[in-house]
Amino acid sequence: MGETLKGRTAVITGSTSGIGAAYAKALAAEGAAIMLNGFGNLADIESLRAAIADEHAVSVFYNAADMTNHDEIRNMVADATERLGKVDILINNAGLQHRSLVDDFPIDKWNALFAVNVTAPFVATQAVLPQMRSRDWGRIINTASVNAFITSPGTSAYTSTKHAIMGFTKSVSLETIDTGITCNAICPGTVRTNMSEHRLDAFAAERGVSKEEALDAYIDQKLPFHQPMRRFITVEEIAAAAVYLCSDAGAAMRGAAFTIDGGWLAQ
Ligand code: NAD
User: Fold this and answer.
1) Distances from the Cα of 52 to the Cα of 33, 61, 238, 266, angstroms
2) Could you say which architecture CATH assigns to the domain 9-191+233-262?
3) How far is the CA of 116 from the centre of ligand 1 (A)?
4) Residue-wise over 40-57: b if at least 16 C-beta within 10 A, else e?
5) How far is the CA of 178 from the centre of ligand 1 (A)?
6) How far apart are CA 257 and CA 241, in angstroms?
């Protein structure tokens, strides 16, 4: 497609499905070599890896690091550095959600969300920074959410982690401000992926209608979702922002929240 990212290499966590897989496809389409990561059926992951590599004629590898394991995260960065030659771009995208009121929010779920949504990006960022500094070029993108700014009942842990990752994004951006390394957050509204699909299943079941029949009512809810544009945002719309942030044109984007939210935060 394009050559904006030709010669660049990217590690994308949680890229075996949803938004992460779309990042991988979009960056590969602009010439970047990719290290995929995430859970899933190994045959499906291999199909995704091979399809991206074949379609865009770039190297694509997969590392199965569990984002809750700090050594596995560091080993993933080392593996990417060895197989891709370097890591120019890190996209911290793996994420977990769990809904429950604070009154009975399970502490193990709270800790799991912080481990994957906040601590893993910290560990991965720490692992890539030395080589990015040595080349004076790097792109770090954290997938946050509109929940980096607002919340809805039942999402205390998710909202807290997304506020935290926005704060981390700002910190890294200022600590690298005199370098060619940028750190920004992409903040999506509601995108139809595995993460939102479970919620949609429950919503349809509660109303005794099919999922397709429930779509309009789901997107129209005041709480916990209200996306004024009244449609789901596509993974491709999110991934296009990542291509821009990774390009040389995005060099002045520092510590920014790139919201793609169908007008959600404009209200
Ligand atoms: P998804 O469930 O399709 O993707 C999540 C990815 O993270 C998967 O690849 C999964 O395997 C991976 N993952 C989860 N735990 C992991 C672990 N311990 N180690 C390694 N990988 C792990 O959902 P998605 O919607 O594509 O989510 C991607 C990111 O986008 C998340 O950070 C999420 O919070 C964020 N987000 C999603 C939406 C939405 O509406 N879907 C909105 C705003 C932000």
Assistant:
1) 10, 10, 18, 35
2) 3-Layer(aba) Sandwich (3.40)
3) 9
4) eeeeebeebbeebbeebe
5) 31
6) 11
Q: What percent of the chain has pLDDT over 90?
A: 87
pLDDT in tens, 98-137: 999 999 999 999 999 999 999 999 999 999 999 999 999 9
17 Cβ below 6 A of ligand 1: yes
Query: Please, where in the chain does CATH 3.40.50.720 lie?
Result: 9-191+233-262
* Catalytically annotated residues: 158
50 alpha carbon to ligand 1 midpoint, in Å? 21
Indicate the pTM of the whole model: 0.97
User: Whole-angstrom Cα distance, residue 133 to residue 75?
Assistant: 19
Reported in sequence order, the residue ranges of 95-189 that DSSP labels E, i.e. its strands, are 138-143, 181-188
Query: Which atom number of ligand 1 is nearest to the Cα of residue 192?
Result: 41
Distance from the CA of 85 to the center of ligand 1, in angstroms? 26
Ligand 1 in reach of 63 Cβ (< 6 A): no
Q: Kindly state if the Cβ of 119 falls inside 6 Å of ligand 1.
A: no
User: What whole-number percentage of the chain has pLDDT above 70?
Assistant: 99
Render pLDDT for 222-252 as a digit per residue (tens, 0 to 9): 665 578 888 999 999 999 999 999 999 999 9
For residue 115 and ligand 1, the question of a CB distance below 6 A is answered with: no
